[in-house]
Design brief:
The complex is a heterodimer of chains A (281) and B (294). Chain A is built from 13 helices and no strands. In chain A, helix 4 runs antiparallel to helix 9. In chain A, 77% of the residues lie in helices and 0% in strands. Chain B has 294 residues and is an all-alpha fold. Chain B has one domain (62-293): MetI-like (MetI-like fold, Orthogonal Bundle), CATH 1.10.3720.10. The radius of gyration of chain B is 24 Å and the shape is globular. The chains are: A mainly alpha (281), B mainly alpha (294).
């Protein structure tokens, strides 16, 4: 075993503290801004710690009083939830059969490779026709239209995850059920899909994260509270003439909360997903 | 069961996905190609066929070459920094110390933070009047007067790169850490017995295990960085004086701000081609690295 000197141990702990500070300082500052009185944030020298914690901005943003900052925020929150939910369900509905088919029939694998290769396409390469098409269908500024567009991102990714998930379920289990007289759909329903449930959950969470994070299409294809998503609402706040920076920070904290919680819960799945993707190439 | 039936059945199960992909990716891509040869506007006129005019105009414009340089600078510097910092963080997290599991969990935070929230957060930090960076540097007596980090051409791109690195290096670190944990302990132990110093041990014993996964991370991050839009749009919109304008921002301005759908489409396809070339070159590199490391 490696012998560790005291100096080495001190060095390791110093580096660990530095890394923790680099990661935490900006996030902590976002939260501190959200609960600092506006006067503290405008003070020179800047007051790093609020004299009194002020949670009123959270109340303000989550209120639904008409024409308030809260109304714009809560409607965008609802739109983001609806769009992420619809797009995720639709992506899984496409990905589960396709992922299983490719996993069990490698001969058609090239079609999935083509679907996945679209990841390289910059969204700008699709944006103009998508804009014209949605406008033609009356789906601009519409949650259904944006959810449909999000399938360009979500469907290839979830199919790839589902395919790797099915790969790790031995075919022999399915074959055994079929020999016992179960039909294909019965086998899938009773044997394969329950075994694939954890992968489905992981895929769904990843899909929600991707949809929640999306900004470019949402910026282009939505224009008011009927369809604007949280990311667009926050960019509006950040770029607008809001004088209270704490309010912008509060919106950021609220928008970051769901994905950060999902990320922490999914830690294990996330890291193993990264590894398999990284090692298999 | 016959294999023809198996294949037919597989195609039937793929069909819904393929139909949707053709509708939302295939058709738009083909239509972008068609538009790129016309002078169509975003709204109204269908436009006339203009041959390669859009392409030649774009490729010869100084806007394009400037933007290409900016995009390349952004992609190369931020990805290189992310790889170096990410690997250093992974080497640290691979050591034994108290609090290691917590630190590893913290690495998820920047990754999970939505890109737009990250951009907004850094925009607030860099704020010229009330920002935390100005306050901290002034209180430490490192600068005399507040500066407009995102408003000055000299610092805007660097400030963006820092914000982008902070969000993305933890992902590289987690990938590298997973690869490090796959290095067999007896190999590192044997190299110690053989008297390898820390540098040689990293270079000859550990790096071969890291090379494959890191190449994949490098490819994915470079493609993403080349397509960058969100963080720049929220923080600077390509300013000041277009010093942070990347290719995706330029396409957005051309097609949507100026409503020139035709020339925007041609530019979008040039970007697509550049990204494809990058990806193919990288894929070959990955195959080579993975082959030599195995």
């Amino acid at each position: 075993m490696e012998r560790k000197s005291l100096a080495f141990t001190v060095f390791i702990y110093a580096c660990a503290l530095l890394l923790a500070a680099i990661i935490l300082a900006p996030i902590a500052w976002l939260f501190i801004m959200s609960i600092s009185p506006a006067a503290d944030l405008a003070a020179k020298p800047l007051r790093w710690w609020p004299q009194a914690a002020d949670f009123s901005r959270y109340q303000q943003l989550l209120s639904t009083a008409e024409n308030s900052a809260g109304a714009a925020f809560t409607s965008s929150l609802r739109n983001s939830l609806e769009i992420a939910g619809m797009a995720t369900l639709a992506a899984l509905a496409l990905a589960i059969p396709a992922g299983w088919a490719v996993s069990r029939t490698p001969a058609i694998g090239w079609s999935l490779s083509m679907v996945i290769a679209t990841y390289m396409l910059p969204p700008v390469a699709l944006a103009v026709p998508l804009y014209m098409g949605l406008s033609h269908l009356g789906l601009l500024n519409n949650v259904f239209g944006l959810a449909l567009v999000y399938l360009t991102i979500l469907a290839p990714f979830t199919t790839w995850l589902m395919k790797s998930g099915f790969d790790s379920i031995p075919r022999e289990i399915e074959a055994a059920a079929m020999i016992d007289g179960a039909g294909l759909f019965q086998t899938l329903r009773i044997i394969t899909l329950p075994l694939a449930a954890p992968v489905m959950a992981t895929s769904a969470l990843f899909a929600v994260l991707l949809a929640w994070d999306e900004f470019f299409y949402a910026l282009l294809f939505t224009s008011d509270q009927r369809a604007k998503t949280l990311t667009v609402a926050i960019a509006d706040l950040a770029g607008g003439r809001v004088s209270d920076y704490g309010l912008i920070a509060t919106a950021g904290v609220l928008a970051a909360l769901p994905p950060v919680l999902i990320g922490l819960v999914m830690q294990r799945a996330l890291i193993s997903g990264l590894t398999s993707g990284g090692v298999k190439g | 069961m016959s294999s023809t039936w198996m294949t037919t059945r597989a195609w039937l199960l793929m069909l819904p996905l393929l139909v949707v992909m053709v509708a939302v990716i295939g058709w738009p891509l083909v239509d972008t190609v068609r538009l790129s040869f016309t002078d169509a506007k975003l709204v109204g006129t269908a436009g006339n066929f203009v041959g390669f005019d859009n392409y030649t105009n774009m490729l010869s414009s100084s806007n394009f070459s400037r933007t290409l340089v900016t995009t390349t600078l952004f992609a190369v510097i931020s990805v290189a920094a992310e790889m170096v910092i990410g690997v250093l963080a992974a080497l640290l997290l691979n050591q034994q110390f108290h609090g290691r599991a917590i630190l590893r969990a913290l690495m998820i935070l920047p990754w999970a933070l939505p890109t737009v929230v990250n951009a907004t957060l850094w925009r607030l930090i860099y704020n010229p009047e009330y920002g935390a960076l100005n306050a901290a540097l002034t209180q430490l007596h490192l600068i005399d007067a507040y500066r407009s980090w995102l408003g000055e051409p000299g610092t805007a791109l660097a400030a963006l790169i820092v914000a982008d690195c902070w969000k993305n290096f933890p992902l590289v670190a987690l990938i590298a850490l997973a690869a490090l944990q796959a290095v067999p302990r007896d190999i590192t132990a044997a190299s110690l017995v053989d008297g390898a110093g820390p540098f040689n041990r990293f270079r000859f014993v550990i790096l071969p295990y890291l090379a494959g996964p890191l190449m994949v991370a490098l490819v994915l991050r470079t493609i993403e960085a080349f397509k960058v839009f969100d963080i720049i749009w929220v923080m600077t919109r390509g300013g000041p004086a277009n010093t942070t304008r990347t290719l995706s921002i330029l396409v957005y301005q051309e097609a949507f701000s100026f409503q020139r759908a035709g020339s925007g489409a041609s530019l979008a396809l040039i970007v697509t081609l550049l990204v494809t070339v990058l990806a193919v070159a990288y894929a070959a590199l990955v195959r080579k690295t993975a082959g030599s490391a195995a």
